[in-house]
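Researcher: Next sequence.
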Amino acid sequence: MKQSVVVLGGGTAGWMASAYLRAAFGDNIDVTVVESRRIGTIGVGEATFSTVRHFFDYLGLSESDWMPECNATYKLAVRLEDWRAPGDVFYHPFERMRVVDGVPLTDWWQRIRPTERFDRDCFLIPWLCDAKASPRHLDGRLFEQDFAEEQDRPLYRTTLAEQNTQFPYAYHFDASLLADFLTRYAVERGVRQIIDDVVDVRLDERGWIDHLVTGEHGEVRADLYVDCSGFRSRLLGQALQEPFISFRDSLPNDRAVALRVPVDTAVEGIRPCTTATAQDAGWIWTIPLLDRIGTGYVYAADYCEPEEAERVLREFVGPAADELEANHIRMRIGRSQRAWVNNCVGIGLSAGFVEPLQSTGIFLIQHAIEQLVRYFPGTDRSPVLREGYNLSVARAIEGVREFLILHYRGAARADNDYWRDAKQRPVPDDMARRLEQWQGKLPDNDTTYPYYHAFEPYSYVCMALGLGGIPLHHPPALDLFDAGRAKHELNRVRDQAQALLKALPSQAEYLSRQR
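Model: Next structure:
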């Protein structure tokens, strides 16, 4: 008998899940999405990891299919401003570090230091971001020297597990427009859409979900329920009462206020990166889309009132913020103890969320969906599959949590209670040991979080070097090496970057020609 899946909630998570399940299993399962007219996507502008390309590839979508529909732009890095001190800038790029004589170039940089900007000395992408350049030439060729794109689609679809090289960019897009696009995609491929409110959730004698009761469509039944109801966690949290593990002790930012700021990109250009600018009680994101800037202040309510946060954000944006409506958001930071309970799987905000400091929201949704396909239940409902899924999902979000803690623990900024307290908050025991190890040697495969969470050792290196709050030393062995080849490679980075800036169009020019 064909299995059935009901996804509660549309938005980005719900339609990503339903579209992916349909792409994976085709007509072998029935998929229904139940979403309310009254609950919309937050839609403040979304930033992603470079791994999101596997999601679109799995659905058989090229950039030209979906990017123009979603006002999407390219993202090559995260730009961090004022985390070390006011006026300081560094990038966390989608670019693995170079190696000279078996030693990462960033380790060599600590010894040689041609300038004080490790990011521009060791990587190409920071140069492109500063110049607001496109990652592609006008003929569509990718700028990246070491990444070869396949001209023809492979005979198989790829997932996060096949990310064996670092693709040099991700995307920014309008989350509401992406949800609309995926709605059309999924419905055209057989996903049923029910627009209605769920007024009750009925459980059977085992405590499993028996059916949903809707206001206008009566009872809706399925073999498996996917909870994409956002922070409300209507099924996983409310109906099944799954305990929630808060991350508030280590990541206290629990509020955000956002603005959608119109911009003329033809005049202003489009910087191909997400910017995170440190503030007195958190940080402000800046996400450039084709028609606007998505911006918001993520802050801790213990240190800042909503009115003050909105004032700071409007002052940060300037006159363009006048008359714009602000969207205030409460965030539940942490994760459900189990993301899959009985016959219900939580995906997205319903299962867990950490602040969007490194754009992990879409990644965690994509990872959860891929794991659901991997562990999709048979008719016997084996608990082994649920346990495997829960372990994989929990490890991913715990790894992201640890990486974000590094931002606050490692930031040199300590000019008020918020930033001073950040250095005193508890960290996982294993992370405390790793922080000590990094002082004598920059992070590597042996000294970073060991389970898959998408961040590679070079990401930790960038943060440790850029934040400035961790005392670092180059390995003593480097003093015994001849530094000639390393100096040559550092010069080569600069020369390659300058050549690229002469050859590449601006991102605004490139995207304008694709529409």
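Model: The radius of gyration is 23 Å. The mean pLDDT is 95.
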